[in-house]
């Protein structure tokens, strides 16, 4: 959600208004994503690096996070209709206890929803997640719960903060003109992930930008699948797609708004 501070500065507003506008943008983008058939979204709400910011800004972000998630989870918000499960993926030991208690209650109250996931990366860095996974695995090996010979890529994924729920990213969106990766989902970006850069500041990132990002991805995905078919390369198995996308919209029949039938 890059660009909140610059948005506030450009508009001559207090910094917290930038984050507030960013939180509003998030609700709209999520609605758009879920309507277009995206099952899982992760939002980078707070990097461990962000603890270096002034305490007043950290407090503003934490308060916003609590109030916006409560709104998303409990109130009559548009997101509620998508049967959303909200999950925190991040280092919980760094979260103040009052904030953590609220967030865990939100997690618990939405745990039964299975249609869509909203993962909140908070406080998160990918390197911290990798250290966390390795530490968990080491404990399991030491307590004979796991043998070294049994460790696979899946073991590492299952011990991330995601607990194996989001192993592969289709699209990583970076807003506001930044092109660095900021220690975000380094493992989850794989051979078919697409990184989509946008110069738009996050609070200005709206339906059009979301739709266009997904449209472009769908189009190129269609070409890749067709290519794979032509070259008889089976890069993604039907089983894998069906497991990943329970909804028919993103199964092998391409999303109707971006399907191509013939490449010339
Ligand atoms: C990055 O922009 C944004 C953040 C570090 C905080 C984002 C958090 C919220 C909007 C709180 C609400 C969150 C949820 C999940 C409901 P920046 O501050 O780095 O801005 P800049 O790129 O202009 O410097």
TrEMBL record:
PROSITE patterns: UPP_SYNTHASE. It comes from the Eukaryota. One of its GO terms (molecular function) is ditrans,polycis-polyprenyl diphosphate synthase [(2E,6E)-farnesyl diphosphate specific] activity. It is an enzyme of class 2 (transferase). Pfam families: Prenyltransf. The keyword Manganese does not apply. Belongs to the UPP synthase family. GO terms for biological process: polyprenol biosynthetic process. Keywords: Magnesium, Transferase. GO terms for cellular component: dehydrodolichyl diphosphate synthase complex; endoplasmic reticulum; lipid droplet; membrane. InterPro entries: UPP_synth-like, UPP_synth-like_CS, UPP_synth-like_sf. Its EC number is 2.5.1.-. This is Alkyl transferase.
